[in-house]
Amino acid sequence: MTELGYSKAWRTFADAGMYVLMHLTLKLDLGGFENVPPTGPLMIIINHNSFLDPLVPCVFVRHDVFPMAKVEALEHWLGWTLKWYGAFPVRRGAGDVSALKSSLRVLKAGHALLMAPEGTRNPEGILQEGHEGAALIAARSGVPILPIAMRGGAPFFKNLKRLRRTPITMRIGMPLIVRPLEQKLSRDELRALTDEMMYALAALLPIEMRGRYADVEKFALRYLLPYDTFASTTKANAEVMPLTN
Q1: Using CA atoms, how far apart are residues 48 and 125, in angstroms rounded to an integer?
Q2: At what angle do helices 187-202 and 133-141 cross, to 10 degrees?
Q3: Is 141 left (phi over 0), alpha (psi -120 to 50) or beta?
Q4: pTM of the full predicted structure?
Q5: CATH number, residue 203
Q6: Nearest-angstrom CA–CA distance, 198 and 152
Q7: Where do runs of H (alpha helix) occur along 86-186?
Q8: DSSP category for residue 34
Q9: pLDDT digits over 79-100, tens only?
């Protein structure tokens, strides 16, 4: 058992089982793996159309991924699939301190946290307004943010009854990171950071799925930086830093 109370052996078993099941029941179109930081803590944000959306990254992103899920999802009969991956609950409608602490604990342990800033599914696939909890965690943790856009999956059970595989697409975007902050973000600044994160997701989706973030061509980074730029600058600064006695 690890410090987070899950078994590495069990996760390996779950990955193998879900990998086989997904290849049997889904037509997978996966791309952008070159954008995944190879090591270290990571915050994955996804749009949310179907119950498959958090599971596909859990299986195919080469990190130990821990999903945050609403209480109702974990109590649903399909909740066991999320529990396989150490999912923990968040209560919507109010600040959930327990979920925040669990999120930061996952990241502090060097793992990947997965969450859907929209907070709920939209079977029509239209991107909804993001909630500010994801931005708060991103600002507090300072870890890379990896946007992953999901498409398809909603007709899964209908197709399964007809013995058809369901198409599902996953596109992994460029990793980002919150700029170094001199002070705590205000509520308005958290809102702006949330919108930047949602625009990063929208840029990976076709126009008809972008919803309120359809004007993505106007999107400009203010609170976020490309992670590669940040990492290379940090490395360069470290290399020229004078040694002290």
Answers
A1: 7
A2: 100
A3: alpha
A4: 0.88
A5: 3.40.1130.10
A6: 19
A7: 97-108, 133-141, 156-161
A8: G
A9: 667 777 777 878 766 567 888 8
